[in-house]
Amino acid sequence: MQETLKALSISDVNPGGFAGDWMGGGKHQTVVSPVNGEKLAAVANVTPAEFDTILGKCHAAAEAWKQVPAPKRGEVVRALGDELRKHKEALGMLVSLEMGKALREGLGEVQEMIDICDFAVGLSRQLYGLTMTSERGQHRIQEQWHPLGVVGVITAFNFPVAVWSWNTAIALVCGDTVLWKPSSKTPLTAIACTKIAETVLRRFGYDPAICSLTIGKGSEIGDLINTDPRVALVSYTGSVPGGRHVGKLVQERFGRQILELGGNNAVIVSDKADLDIALRTIYFGAIGTSGQRCTSTRRIIVHASIYETFKQRLLDAYRKTSIGDPREAKNLMGPLVDPAAVDTLLAAIETVKAQGGKLLIGGEKLPLPGGCYVTPAIAEVSGNLDIVKEETFAPLLYLMKYTTLDEAIALQNGVPQGLSSAIITNDLVESERFLSVTGSDCGMANVNAGTSGAEIGGAFGGEKETGGGRESGSDAWKAYMRRQTTVINFSGKVELAQGITLDI
Ligand code: NAD
Fold this sequence. Notes:
The chain has 14 helices and 24 strands. It has helices at 2-7, 48-65, 70-86, 88-99, 103-123, 162-173, 187-204, 218-227, 240-252, 275-287, 307-319, 339-354, 405-413, 428-435, and strands at residues 13-15, 17-18, 22-23, 28-32, 39-44, 131-132, 139-147, 150-154, 177-181, 211-214, 231-237, 256-260, 265-269, 297-303, 358-361, 377-380, 396-402, 417-418, 420-424, 444-447, 459-460, 463-464, 471-472, 481-489. It has a seven-stranded mixed β-sheet, sandwiched between helices. Strands 15-16-17-14-13-19-20 form a seven-stranded mixed β-sheet, with helices on both faces. Nicotinamide-adenine-dinucleotide is lined by residues 154-159, 181-184, 218-219, 222-223, 226, 237-239, 242, 245-246, 260-263, 294, 391, 393, 419, 462, 466.
């Protein structure tokens, strides 16, 4: 543990604010590992006055940064990716220690950071605008893209480093600066990443405030970000209630926003499915990251003719789940993030039962150090009960039955959230129907691949209460820039649009 902290320059007490200088005059917070309940380190939160200084410096840094040519900005992001490669083992371990996910998932998360840097480097030589034909002779119309300024990146605990990098790598090549407010549950990984970015920016001679950090209470520091017009774009990843609050405040000042909120992801298992594929994708989708991914599989909708068979296979797999210290390779499931998350799971199970569901397996608190370990649960339900419509951010999987594909799609779509979805089938007609306009209503719809996880190349995000935002891959970069439509007249005379003539 000490070796990991040392490798990432984490001290006993760490200032939680950065904009060229480190600062932290606010309350001290002790960070305890859910892995064993031991203290990792302490963080000194920023005060509102320090926040103002940090944002001021980050805002000022944007002025020079936006004038650096995009391919040169890409060189910085390439170096950031290289630095992350060097720190992959330590950072992956810190993710595991601070948040509790299995070490191989922690390492996978850092790999995603590296991959998005590569993606962004390529992007730095693209950022294409369109040209259009003009209705006027010897005129040209084009669209060009300019940086926005400061991007406020507010992140959730469950991907403590990847979400920052998805936003930051893209924002940097787009010419924006980044002000990061991480979850108070995972401040140490944020400090480690900011130190890595600081090293790179200093090496290139750029203002390190380009990657600023502000750690503090969400309701206090978060609201300062939401309401300050110097933050051009707020990219918020978190729960639906949180997003509803942030969305209103940012909209009120006509700021831009990317909302990446909760999911309630279902897999339809058809009677034409390969059940081995179904079992593997659903099992890992439900228990990976201890059910704490926004894309975790939370509901499975199984054809009545294979329901009992599939249920027994799934229960057998659940019985074999190895749970324990996430640093040990044999353990697929580590702890939940904190004891409160355990209470949330146990309370949800009681509510499921009260609403008519039946607990088939799991949902027990394990007597392991730290008090955050549980067995993953499956509950059988008759459909989307009220509790099923909510995202319980824990390993609780709902199992339900269908007979027609229409019914399965209605169940899949019958929740307020719309992040990720999947169908397991070898029937072309079924899969096409699932992907069609009358199929899944989610931002992500997969065939013979699970709901959980995403490749960085595709735009990531969801519909309905998931917020509609898209970050990272594909053309999501456009959300980090402002579009300017330009008319250039090289005719030597004035020709007005819409055929208007002037007699002057
Ligand atoms: P959360 O909503 O509790 O917190 C998210 C962030 O919001 C934290 O940094 C928190 O400090 C901050 N915050 C709190 N009050 C704020 C305020 N007034 N203004 C601004 N920020 C404020 O979420 P969590 O428990 O950390 O993460 C789990 C949730 O995040 C789940 O719902 C999960 O589905 C969602 N999530 C979504 C995605 C996605 O891409 N769709 C990805 C990861 C997590």
